[in-house]
Amino acid sequence: MDIRRLFGKVLAFCLLAVAGTTLLRVDGSRADEGMWTLDNPPLHQLQERYGFTPTAAWLDHIRLASVRFNDGGSGSFVSPHGLVLTNHHVALGQLQKVSSPQKDYVADGFYARLPAEELRCPDLELNVLVSMADVTKRMQDSVKSDMSDEVALKARKAEIAKIEKESLDSTGLRSDVVTLYEGGEYWLYRYKKYTDIRLVFAPERQIAFFGGDPDNFTYPRYDIDFALFRVYENDKPVDSKDHLKWNQGGAANGELVFVSGHPGSTARLDTMAQIETERDYLLPLTIKLLNQRLEVARKYSALGPEQARQAMTLIFGAENSLKAFRGRVEGLADKSLIAKKQKEEADFRALVANKPEWQKLYGGAWDAIAQAEAKEREVVQTHRRRSLGGYRLPGLALSIVRLVTELKKPDGVRLDGFHEAQLESVRFRLFSPAPIYPRFEEAMLTGSLQFALDGLGPDDPFIKAVLNGRSPEAVAKEAVAGTKLADPAFRKSLVEGGEAAVQASTDPLVVLARRADPLGREVIKWHEDNVQSVEMKAGEKIGKARFAAYGKSLYPDATFTLRLTFGTVKGYPMNGTIAPVRTTLYGLYDRAYGFDMKPPFDLPQPFLERRSSLDLSTPVDFVSTCDIIGGNSGSPVVNKQGELVGLIFDGNIEGLVGDYVYNEENNRAVAVHSAAMIEVLRKVYDAGALADELLGN
């Protein structure tokens, strides 16, 4: 288990709705499950189960129409003029960054009636997967049999950096080496990267997130959770030839549909030792951290309307994450689930043990991982708390301190995130002109330092380094009040000045980051030497064993790379009754009036004023058996013709354990219906021109 992978999920969940995932069956059998890479689509399963085989042209079209939001989430091109569809909650961070105390586009919505009115996003990067190349042999050849685990890890990292830099230099495309099947395969993914992204439309948050946290991860739902951006290049909308045709009729009950998106992370191929670490150590600690952040943000939010606006994104993310992680904890407490996972692993290990050659090559991998996990459990409480945390400013400070140090090193030995092929995206984020709110930063940094102090005690080296005998409040106040890092020009000047400028800086937040950095590096190195190096080598062995046993009939864990899933539009048993396939505008108004229009079940004023003009039988949301997870938010739902029929925005509560298991009976992906978006654009927001563009009129 990579501890950074799990805690990376905390950040991801701040913007992503989470939905269910899959229980891998070692015999290769499955229902409507699997997050399939585009090089290995489930053609046999689709033909066998549904009598449909997508062509290479169909797959290429879907791939090139799919978009990754690099700050978390998915989307798709939906017009020939660079228009991209995603969720409101995926757009939330950018909506807040283009807002101000005078104009709150999160709460009030936004519509650019003219191209000149479209709002440029300060730091949004979109990626489109252009090509994929198998680099497994090259990666495996970079490691020699006599290398120690630590040396082998360094060799792998150096080769990844080399491959990515060579690809960037030769193609100009963003180039990422992706690890699949726990190291059984390595692929080079090349992306066309766009950074001139402009906001076109977003409804009010209240209709996009109708029902608020009480309804989150539930179904039936009534959220019209969508937003539209336009992609520009050379100050002109891009020619998005591969865009999805809009099908306003949606999909029928029982119809085969597909989801093309970027699921963030799953743990379906994890060993039992890794799952136990997550269940008993990482998840409880993550929940503590989220509760602490939520408490601090809520206190700040209560100070006034402007403070509430500033803290809204973090509060939304923390509430969303808490509900998701608690669902995982409850799922992993299910003895039948654990027994099933244990049996799967035992059966697989027995299969390997029954073949002497396999046992010799792969048999020790599970024990090696178990030993590494035992070491990690001893330090996880300490290591996870040794972090400045906070909100935006501390992360910017630490990134600057590390960037100027790493740039002096050869590319292959730098910290992950600072390799040559990654620097353009790093600088794009570092120099973002997005607004920063010092008082909120101070509150969040204070809370983070207090969390560290409470868990580590005053004698911990990290606490001594960052607090130096002072209170978290005093340190945070001094650091934030005296820093100039809120100014992107100042951040740029520090980076351009290099390590000398950063080391000489008296900026208090830079000074604080310099004190924290050595302890953070110690944590990274310890983890690489004791856990990552061991588990990467052992994971490769298990991956090879799977290929030896099952070939490519299996699919890899999610890695925030493009995947294709399939399923049918289908209701499910729920609370002693049946959940409907779809909901309607009738149900939206019924739920709002059933709660007397009290938050979070109140409706935006335009929905009250325009009610009589709406066709209340219009479908709002629908469910399917498609297998999704956090990161799929904003993914298009398409039919066999490749037409857009819906927009993924959530999963049901039964699927919260979906990081580990999938149950076709009641695990559902929840999507906005294509008809609902057109209906409200035309009749609520007077955005007929935008609706026409979506429909190709």
Summarize the structure.
This protein has 697 residues and is α+β, with helices and mostly antiparallel strands. The longest helix is centred in the C-terminal third of the chain and has 43 residues, at 508-550. The model is unreliable at 1-29 (pLDDT under 50).
> What does the radius of gyration come to?
25 Å
Structural class: alpha+beta
Q: What is the share of helical residues?
A: 40-55%
Largest sheet: 11 strands, antiparallel
- Which residue ranges are poorly predicted, with pLDDT under 50 across at least 5 consecutive positions? 1-29
Topology overview:
Blueprint: H1 3-13, H2 43-50, H3 56-65, E1 66-69, E2 74-77, E3 83-86, H4 88-97, H5 105-108, E4 110-111, E5 119-120, E6 126-134, H6 136-141, H7 149-171, E7 174-180, E8 185-194, E9 196-202, H8 205-208, H9 212-215, E10 227-233, E11 236-237, E12 256-261, H10 272-301, H11 305-332, H12 335-353, H13 356-362, H14 365-385, H15 393-406, H16 423-430, H17 438-456, H18 461-467, H19 472-482, H20 488-504, H21 508-550, E13 563-568, E14 572-574, E15 577-579, E16 582-584, H22 585-594, H23 605-609, E17 619-624, E18 636-638, E19 644-651, E20 669-673, H24 674-683, H25 688-695
Throw out a few tags for this protein.
697 residues, alpha+beta, seven-stranded antiparallel β-sheet, 25 helices, 20 strands, globular, disordered N terminus
